[in-house]
Amino acid sequence: xxxxxxxxxxxxxxxxxxxxxxxxxxxxxxxxxxxxxxxxxxxxxxxxxxxxxxxxxxxxxxxxxxxxxxxxxxxxxxxxxxxxxxxxxxxxxxxxxxxxxxxxxxxxxxxxxxxxxxxxxxxxxxxxxxxxxxxxxxxxxxxxxxxxxxxxxxxxxxxxxxxxxxxxxxxxxxxxxxxxxxxxxxxxxxxxxxxxxxxxxxxxxxxxxxxxxxxxxxxxxxxxxxxxxxxxxxxxxxxxxxxxxxxxxxxxxx
Length: 254
Description:
The protein contains seven helices and no strands. The protein has helices at 6-30, 35-93, 112-138, 143-166, 171-194, 201-231, 235-253.
């Protein structure tokens, strides 16, 4: 991107990856996508993210910070996400990525709208921070990370928006959430770059591992259940296909 300042590039790529949530939400809201197809796409996105956090995030964290910082960050990220997700689940956000009728309406669970919005934000921030962090080493963004997050965000937005619509949420609410999270993704990527520019390698490694732990916990808690619910016969195969796609991207990118 030539002479564009690095911080602005970080914000741009965060917005690109986060914008996939809006694209997915539009498809989920306006197109009647069969539940099994939604589940299959979700499984594919899960495989993509698992591959990216394995071969991009954890590998890079280990190389730059060693096992101790990586393991501590990984477990810490998973613990922080799990606790936050547990709290939100008890406020009505447990099924925020489900495309069926599992999401509660505001009448069924007061305050669930806010909890779902906060939960969606919680799911997206760790991924976006990684984009900014990826630019610290070589001075350019990891296109593998951006591609993987983009590919996983489309089904995430699609499934969640379909579920929100079935729960009676308005278009303004649905697209307001995903539009705001796309902007938040941009700001998180910007923060990942600016806050850690000049930080010690072990700090960057630990932070990358924290994000990886949070992403994996998010997958296990929210995305994989949706994939298995409808596509259980083929969920494993589709997940493996997504993993292989991101693995190929990683090797071609490397």
